[in-house]
Amino acid sequence: MSRALTAPKKKRNIGSTLLTVLFVLVCIIYMLPVVEVGVNSFKTNAAVNTDTFALPNSETFVGFDNYVKGMNAGNYPFWLSALYSLFITVVSAFLILLCTSMAAWYIARVSSRFARIFYYVCVFSMVVPFQMVMFTLSGTADMLKLNTPWTIPIIYLGFGAGLAVFMFTGFVKSLPLEIEEAAAIDGCGPIRTFFCVVLPMLKPTMISVGILEVMWLWNDYLLPYLSLNRTKYMTIPMYVQYLKGSYGSVDMGAFMAIIFMSILPIIVVYLFCQKHIIKGVAAGAVKG
Fold it and tell me: What is the pTM (predicted TM-score) of this model?
């Protein structure tokens, strides 16, 4: 009897070990490009071009010279690009989280045809490729004067609403309605009920959606490229695109340094908050 019980356990242990090894190998494969960018950011331009996968040595190691060169090589201040990227990311993420969480609460609690149609429109927007609307979007942004860093968060709100509404709606449907009814009995109106009762309970999904949206907003290149006035405003992805030297040449060492600087903040944020993504997705995976 004991042998019969230990055999399935051994099989499960072997299976879990094999899966662990497989996922470690996949993780290494995905991390290799990031590691290579970081390594090459400390090498000379010639070494990056001729011996890309080699580690820096005494002849090819340049320290932080590439970082200084990269921040001063463009025709646009790097610090200003960083400020624009930070402002657009923070404001857009705030608008998306606030507006979509309120919309999801309305959809989940109001049984009307309008609420259902609005929900399906938001879900449908998730499958519409950006390339289908980018030219129309560029003209509309210019017409409505949305081509500045202070107004482009409105455009991001429209594009980021689909996923956020979908996840928030699934989570709100899992919340007990009795808590909101008790708040209404105590005299809370809809606005106060949402901000004092519902919003604190949305924390797991709020963190999850926020991280996913921040990763998208920080790394997005195409929408700012089409919407913003490139002579006045540049985000970090746009700065990387226009990082060129004389006669259109590119210093690959400085190029790698700027790329690494642009991806490092979002990697750090993701590593510290990845457990919340899993919790938020699992919490929002509710049928209703």
Answer: 0.84
User: What confidence tier does 132 reach under pLDDT thresholds 50, 70, 90?
Assistant: confident
Q: Is the dihedral of CA 231, 235, 239, 240 positive or negative?
A: negative
Measured CA to CA, the distance from residue 20 to residue 26 in angstroms comes to 10
Indicate if 129 and 22 belong to the same structural domain: no
Q: Comparing 8-12, 119-123, 231-235, which segment has the lowest mean pLDDT?
A: 8-12
On whether both 130 and 89 belong to a single domain, the answer is yes
- What's the Rg (C-alpha) of the chain? 24
Length of the chain: 288
CA distances from residue 106 to 101, 235, 247 in whole angstroms, order as listed: 9, 34, 56
Total of domains in the chain:
2
What is the amino acid identity at position 261? Answer: M
Structural domain range at position 183? 73-284
CA angle 76, 140, 165 (to 5 degrees): 95
End-to-end CA distance of the chain: 45
Residue 60 domain-assigned (yes or no): no
Claim to verify: residue 20 and residue 92 sit in the same structural domain: no
What is the rounded CA–CA span in Å between residue 59 and residue 232? 39
Give the C-alpha separation, 41 to 257, whole Å.
4
Does 22 lie in the same domain as 85?
Answer: no
